[in-house]
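Hi, here's the filled form for the chain we discussed.

Project: internal
Contact: R.S.
Residues: 815
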Amino acid sequence: MNLVKITFVLFLFSTNFYAQNDCKDAIIVCGNSGFQGLNANGPGEIVEYTPSDNSCFATENNSIWLKLSIKTSGTLGFILTPESHNIVVDFDFLVFGPNASCNSLGQSIRCSTTNPAAARLPDNTTGMTGEYFDTVEGPAERGNGFVKWLDVKAGESYFIVIDRFTGNSNFSLEWLGTATFDDPPSINVPSADAMNLEKSDFSGETNPELSFDLTQNTPTIIGSQNDVEVTYHTSSNDAILNLNAIENPADFKNTSSPQIVYARITNTKTKCYNWTSFNLKISDKLIFPNTKINICDNNDSNSTDGKTAFNLNEVTTGIFGNQSTKELTFKYYLTKNDAETDTNSLVSPFLNTIPYQQSIFLKAANSKTNVAIQEIQIIINTPPEITNTTLIQCDARKNTNSLVLFNLKEANASLTNNNSDLETLFFLTNDDAANNNNSLGTEYKNISNPQTLFVRVTNTKTKCYSISTLTLKTNVITESIYNLDAVCDDDGIEDGIHLFNLTNANIPLAASQTIKYYANEDDALLEKNAIETPASYSNQIPYNQDVYARIEEGNDCYGINTIKLLVNKLPNIEPDTVTNVCENLPLYKAHLKAGITDIASITDFTFKWYRDGINIPDEIASVLDVNQIGTYTVEITNKTNCTKTRTIEVTASNAASIKNIEVIDLLESDSNQITVNVSGKGDYEYSLNEPNGPFQESNTFSNLKPGFYEVYVNDKKNCGTVHKTAALVGAPKFFTPNADGYNDNWNLIGLDTSINKNAIIYIYDRFGKLLKQIGTSDTGWDGTFAGTPLPSDDYWYTIKLDDNREAKGHFSLKR
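And the returned structure, exactly as it came back:
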């Protein structure tokens, strides 16, 4: 069988990876192209498996744990190749799964501990492939280093522990088979140096430490991926094992320059990961982190002319951020020549001379470094246009006070002129808006009518803002209530929920007005969660609910109307049932009930009865007596005019007709049996000698003693009980002819002489001599022969009945 090599996305460790780990921090395997340069030193901190359950593997020596999650089903194998071909290097492995946990690994499903030197193998590779059929091999000279690969299914997970028993070598791992693993996240860095971070230092220290914001690389690493997180580490080993993540990557102090930092990106769902690295560098040359400064044109009376006075110190802060500049001196100039000749330096605040965009030149220097000159672009951004607007709300409640909820977001379209780059915040005072303090929520209840709020409108790109006003006004409107026709809860589920067409309320609208429907008054006031399909709305509160229709003209509330929804209950009745009439009792009638279970007066209901779908005239009571079979229905209507139907199936029954009684008798034991065969339409039950039961379902009675029995057959549907006598013939096992009045004669028991009037009994002694012949009219044998009493002994009989049955047996004479 040829091995199928997977060629999916590569997730490759190109550097040596030294580790000792345990099951709990197993390396998550992603991608299918294997590993290179792996090494393992030490046995880990704990032993997760029981050696007695995994006899081919005694203990960990130098181990590394891997965890695999299967993405697509197929075959799974691998080849482990040590970098050293010295035969003394011996790698072993165990595989646990599927879906084992570190706390309960159980028995391994694959195990190889063959020692290549002891087994005299040509090389020291090992693994699982499709060419082999054994699942366990080793230890020592047993096996050849390979076992059978696995058949795995999507969604399963497996643990592999690889242990270097002897020797010292790195190793590589190549995956085989058709199964695939989850793919690792991707890292698409534009260039090798794209994420390097560099800062200037002017302290003169030999090994300076500066604060670096590592998180500025996070968006580059993530790109457009979802469900991923990024951590930063100081070693590749920590990044791979997800150890010792830098606690505050936004303020990381370097320990050397240059210094390598490792970024790990992890899929939070699959736990697959990838990693990369970048450099931190501290330069003794002046670096200008930012050379383009945005300023808002809101420091003078004209905010639209592209000119404003700005503080040059704030420009410096914008260029260097939180980087320490205490060792530097700064001067600004209009031209590079002025900066180079140190003439005509600018004074703060500086009013730009060129509208909207102007370059100035920054000259920075200290006593220990060369002078640096940098052109700085100053961009003057126009604040958002001031737009004052009004939001009109309705108060249509019973007890109005003009103080209602407003959805302030409804004013955004007017405040921003539908510019998606603008965002709004609402404040009670102008000072709060200017200082961005104590902003209000967007769901706000006015405290006066009218009331003016102040709106800070900010351009999200330029961060420039202006302050507009929003006037809140409340229109007090007379409460209008519309009632939709009540409905009966007849949609098949009696839960008080029903479909309504809210548009049937026929609320009047002008041509310039719009209407929307809401499940509660607050939603109507805030214009949120509008009912999407008002023509087919299911009420949310069972039986009785108010919904609200908001009428708007433009963006102003014209009215909020109440629509009342009412779902009336159906009558509560008993379930459908089945009863019967008796064909053998013409005067017997079935008593049919409408079955009302409501706690109410019977006069609150009306009734109509039907037989096989045809109305029964004049039958309007809650009960009906019938003596004909059929399907009877009763329509029960309550005082809210809601109707429910109960069906009563009336079937035919009658008393049984006993066709015959089969008996099994003349047995030596008491295992005689009676079976009653009947005919009729009823459902019957049976009893012996008890006209009122107890009755049994079976028509057979077993283990009976000889004698006469009265068999009763009862119709379960009350159509009567019939009976008949049955006889079980039996012979006594002994008799005592001592004239005491008990057992003085021997004769058959249970012989029906009306049926067997010609029955004959022959009695013999043990030698076959005929001693007596008895007929049905005889009282039996008295134990004598020719008038002489016979001794105590066993005697034999032969019985011949009229129905040609014949039985033989013996009995004892005791004196």
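Let me know if anything looks off before we file it.
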